Amino acid sequence: xxxxxxxxxxxxxxxxxxxxxxxxxxxxxxxxxxxxxxxxxxxxxxxxxxxxxxxxxxxxxxxxxxxxxxxxxxxxxxxxxxxxxxxxxxxxxxxxxxxxxxxxxxxxxxxxxxxxxxxxxxxxxxxxxxxxxxxxxxxxxxxxxxxxxxxxxxxxxxxxxxxxxxxxxxxxxxxxxxxxxxxxxxxxxxxxxxxxxxxxxxxxxxxxxxxxxxxxxxxxxxxxxxxxxxxxxxxxxxxxxxxxxxxxxxxxxxxxxxxxxxxxxxxxxxxxxxxxxxxxxxxxxxxxxxxxxxxxxxxxxxxxxxx
Length: 307
Fold this sequence. Notes:
Helix content is about 75%, strand content about 0%. The longest helix is centred in the last third of the chain and has 40 residues. The termini are far apart.
């Protein structure tokens, strides 16, 4: 029990919160056919992180997250600008934006001789889920000990606050999100401000993705924005049920993926473990595959559904 609390309680909790948060937002991205926005933000975090490192000379979490956040906001603005001025599909605008900004990040690394610092891998790809150790969590009593709770890894509080903000956002703008997802023209006619809600939604996606970068990396973020919500779309034709299914798939992916990462190969006789982030993302993809093969609504070609 003590080993679980020290080594696994915080990483598992962080993984569950991030997976559920991304899956919640992913439902609306899937309905709007904007699922790749999470991938775009994951790519464009690199130039923001590099610029932050060059300005501050430190790899401190706060500086890195501020840099990635600024880069994500620039990405959102660029996508909208290209889409509106160029009159192209949003997928094309996203492709141009995230590949261009990622290339800028790589060039900055080379030009300023910072390529020896593993910014992209350490802070935006793999994360450090397994290293979120709670040294004072030596027993159940630690859950009620203020001194022990003060020693919790800061990533837990960060993702918890982001999860709460996302839940409040969805609850407050639920009607606007539904109208904008199913019928943007009607939403505009009843003054539901679909353009503003779109911007807020993408901003929430950016906030959730960036908060997760250091803890779990973009591997989980990209997978969880797409897989649970897409699998849920194949299970039901009602939005409330879809959100419930997506949350269930997110929790199963996080818990079972974390368990298999640490113990799965051991059960097969191999004394090694694998990346928890990669295993969670892989399991989410397998769930989506199963839904594609046997989901009750797998033959549906459109996105129409009931709120």
